[in-house]
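Need the bound structure for zinc ion, inputs here:
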Amino acid sequence: MPTAYISHAECLAHDTGPDHPETASRLSAIEDRLIASGLFDLVRHVDAPAVTEEQLRRVHSARHLKTIRAMLPQQGYSRLDPDTVISPETLPAARRAAGAVVAAVDLLVSGAINNAFCCVRPPGHHAERERAMGFCLYNNIAVGAAHALEAHGLERVAIADFDVHQANGTEDIFKDDPRVLICSSFQHPFFPFTPLVENSETVISIPLDASARSDEFRAVVRDHWMPALERFKPQIIFVSAGFDAHRDDDMSSISLTDADFRWVTDQIVKVADISAHGRIVSVLEGGYELHSLARCVELHLRMLMGAG
Ligand SMILES: [Zn+2]
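Answer from helper R.:
Posting the output first, comments after.
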């Protein structure tokens, strides 16, 4: 069965202003790399629909949605926090970014695809129920996970997050929901400087030292994520795919390599095959050094396609 590649041209129009790391060039660099490698012709292309208010309300408060709308500038820029710049084109992009994950879930549950990669921006995992932050407005992956639970009646889903930053938004939304297993690792102490959450049966949140390299990261995945995923038997594994722990990405100090991102994807594919009928919905989060980002997304996608 095919791998879906879900994106939308409106995600390119979200303008974060001069000197901001989260730019449309990220998506262009990924697409150029996939075209050059030939992978772009092998995936099933899907235009992301715009998320609905009802789908957003499963994970965000009405006040949060209203605040974003009220802050949207007619022209130029405004800031939801020191890092989160929005422009008139931001809201359509954010709606497509969250809608992509919803569409991925619908396609997956219908049996039309085996897995999906949502190549979207703005990213999502810092967005809390009540608060936009860290470049994120809507928590795209949480919107998708809630859609799987509420619209399709799934009973268990997992979210694996290998972005270098703590998934404070995803934790805020799901840490007390027994239907959602969150597996993450992240540099600590580091942005977003939110409190560590207590680990539990369904929260595997593992801080890594700034000096961490492949060995430390792989040990977390092998010793903490994999046993939890095998035990939990999620019906879909969502992946918050951030590539900003790469050693070439100066957003962080952790030094992972291309091979680590390939390896962690392979681990997730293997556990999904055993525990989740192979179902994976991967969603782009961070990754700001364009060369390593594009290379690692290619490897990530290859593993999802079984073409590694
Ligand atoms: Zn990040």
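Comments: The pocket of zinc ion is lined by residues 163-165, 242, 244, 285-286 (CB under 6 Å). The first helix runs from residue 10 to 13.
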